[in-house]
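Hi team,

As requested, here is the filled-out complex form for the flavin mononucleotide run. I kept the field names the same as last time so the parser does not choke. Let me know if anything looks off before we queue the next batch.

— J.
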Amino acid sequence: MTGSGFGPDSGPTSGAAVRSAPAPVEVLGLRLKSPVVVGSGLLTDQERNIRRLLEDGAGAVVTKTIHPDPGPSGDERLLRLPTGMLNSTTYSRRSVDDWCAMLRRFADDGLPVIASVHADSPAALADLAERVTAAGSGALELGISCLNEDEGGLEDTPERVAAYTRAVRRRTPVPFSVKLAIGERVRERIDAAMASGADAITLSDTIAGLAVDADTGEVRLGGAFGYSGPGIKPLVLAEIFGLRRDGLTVPVMASGGVKDAADVAEYLSVGAEAVQVYTALHRNMHATLRGIRQDFDDWLASHGGTVADLVGRSIKRP
Ligand SMILES: Cc1cc2nc3c(=O)[nH]c(=O)nc-3n(C[C@H](O)[C@H](O)[C@H](O)COP(=O)(O)O)c2cc1C
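And here is what came back:
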């Protein structure tokens, strides 16, 4: 990695000289200090974590998905795999009232927190969106594609996506992203979300994965559940690359397998405007996030460019 500018061989490494470069980006109407956003999950279910992740340099943090009726707390587990993680978790167990109070404190402090929301019906999600908006949330993410609810069997259709999106759009003026999983009819699902009033797309939620005990044949965790981490990165990259190459112009927040600054640069290069990181933070959460953020800023500064220069550069090349 030599010289300046975003040439074909340039990419961030963790050994870059320590420099600080602000890299403002705009996502969902929020002006972020960095395109590195912490995605929704167990780690973002607590006020203390969210505040500290922002202090670590996250451009924004997405809350654990808030649900008005998360159901009985079942057997929610994590299973580490060599290439990532399987998890059978679903929604936050905190009440909507608790979340609204927390979101109010974030808003009062001017913190870039994106409220992730879902519910059992479009009408219930619209009610929830209205409540978190009234609590001061400046941006939302609709976490409507959690496959764990149906043990890997969620059948997401453009019609379902449209129904949830349309219901929310009618009840809140704040910008929101619809989080989808890669897979069948993804372009149609994206088009349905945007036509129904979404401001951006988050791609991807976890993908159905299965682990089997080779000795006993037992299906671990008891079924197919959400697979995340480095193993899904090439799949999500390929999807975003293909969508952009086919002319998709809507704002995209990438999510899938980010573990270092190079991964952030890769997602921006194929056309994501911001990049979420989640599973990697299950190891040394604060140090890992600080490292990704700082390495990315250093690399950007050493090239004298901006985030906007990076976005979509892989597509523009012949
Ligand atoms: C333990 C765990 C819990 C998660 N919980 C949520 C959630 O509540 N809502 C949501 O939208 N995504 C959830 N996700 C998905 C992540 O936000 C992210 O989209 C996905 O894991 C892919 O990114 P990653 O490989 O960087 O983790 C969860 C992922 C994991 C591993």
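Two things worth flagging: Residues 285-303 form the longest helix (19 residues). Residues 14-21 have pLDDT under 50 and may be disordered.

Thanks,
J.
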